[in-house]
Amino acid sequence: MLQVVGPKDSGKTSFCEEAVKELRGRGYRVGYVKSVGGHGLDLQDRDTGRVPADVRVGVARKETVLFLDLDIDAVLGLLALLGLDYVLVEGFKSRELGVRVGFGGYTEGPTVPAEEIDTSPADAVERYAVKYTADIDCGRCGPGSCRDFRRAVARGEENPDGCAAPEDVTVLVDGKPLGLNPFVGDLVKSVV
């Protein structure tokens, strides 16, 4: 996962667009999440927006839109279930979700300034994208915390593949392991 941040009209979406095209051309499966701010998606004048269901899905010929009341952490957990190779997250600069590519002078947190990237956007994604961990801070990597690991990757001191967060999840009930089918195991692993 790579986060792309900066002010409006600074090149974030163009970077993401080029990166996704290149990565898909290399055979990767790529997801993209964009913050639309506090505006929401206005469908109030359409049938999909009028029905007050907990989950609403709009299906067109070649597109599907799923409306859920979820925060960015839950969205990234759901995307983990899709088996994507990379996810680009544009915006959410108030949240440190991963290593960031910063546009327009943005340098807070684990940020690589866009003007310092001398490769293609896809190469930058391959170089800086890290596994999304929801800051579980398992302590298995050298830096010790997810935040410190991301910052070390941004400084070029750690390999993005160096995250050693557990891949397998065991659920214990009264101290005994609970058997999980693969779907439930993947769901728990991506959310916890």
What value does the average pLDDT take? Answer: 84
Gap from first CA to last CA: 17 Å
Structural class: alpha/beta
Q: Helix fraction?
A: 25-40%
Beta percentage is: 15-25%
Tell me the number of strands: 9
Low-confidence stretches: none
What this model shows, in words?
There is one protein chain. With 192 residues, the protein is of the alpha/beta class. The protein is 28% helix and 18% strand. It has six helices and nine strands. It has helices spanning 12-25, 47-50, 72-80, 121-128, 146-154, 182-191; strands at 2-5, 30-34, 56-59, 64-67, 86-90, 99-102, 111-113, 171-173, 176-178. The strands form three sheets. Strands 2-5-1-6-7 form a five-stranded parallel sheet. The protein has a two-stranded antiparallel sheet with strand order 3-4. A hairpin with a 2-residue loop joins strand 8 and strand 9 (176-178). Helix 1 (12-25) packs across helix 4 (121-128) and helix 3 (72-80) runs antiparallel to helix 6. The longest helix is centred in the N-terminal third of the chain and has 14 residues, at 12-25. The mean pLDDT is 84.
Brief summary of the model shown:
With 192 residues, this protein is an alpha/beta fold. 28% of the residues lie in helices and 18% in strands.
Q: What is the secondary structure topology, with strand pairs?
A:
Blueprint: E1 2-5, H1 12-25, E2 30-34, H2 47-50, E3 56-59, E4 64-67, H3 72-80, E5 86-90, E6 99-102, E7 111-113, H4 121-128, H5 146-154, E8 171-173, E9 176-178, H6 182-191
Parallel strand pairs: 1-5, 1-6, 2-5, 6-7
Antiparallel strand pairs: 3-4, 8-9
